[in-house]
């Protein structure tokens, strides 16, 4: 069965969010220090990256369980966007997390 354009776009957003969160955490946050490496924030970024990768994987293997992973992904991405916005200096992360959350909410519906 062919994937919908909406699902293909969601997979792309999830993978982009995975790369952005992981890359930002491991480079920007670790090098900046301070609030950027507070355990709660850093764990949230790691959770967001991994959940995005998992959601994309579930959509790629075309399992109906993707609705559950996408719902959780949307929630975590929303939290990550808010936390990155709170700390500041991570506009790219905030933007991709918000886009991914919106797309995942639609896929979970």
TrEMBL record:
Coiled coil: none annotated. PANTHER family: CYTOPLASMIC PROTEIN (PTHR37310:SF1), CYTOPLASMIC PROTEIN-RELATED (PTHR37310). This is Four-helix bundle copper-binding protein. The lineage of its organism: Bacteria, Pseudomonadati, Pseudomonadota, Alphaproteobacteria, Hyphomicrobiales.
């Amino acid at each position: 069965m062919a994937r919908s354009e909406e699902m293909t776009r969601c997979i792309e957003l999830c993978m982009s969010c995975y790369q952005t969160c992981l890359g930002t955490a491991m480079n920007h946050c670790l090098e900046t220090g301070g609030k950027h490496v507070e355990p709660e924030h850093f764990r949230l970024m790691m959770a967001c990256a991994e959940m995005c990768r998992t959601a994309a994987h579930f959509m790629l293997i075309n399992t109906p369980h993707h609705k559950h992973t996408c719902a959780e992904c949307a929630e975590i991405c929303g939290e990550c966007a808010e936390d990155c916005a709170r700390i500041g200096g991570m506009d790219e992360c905030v933007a991709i997390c918000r886009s991914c959350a919106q797309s995942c909410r639609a896929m979970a519906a």
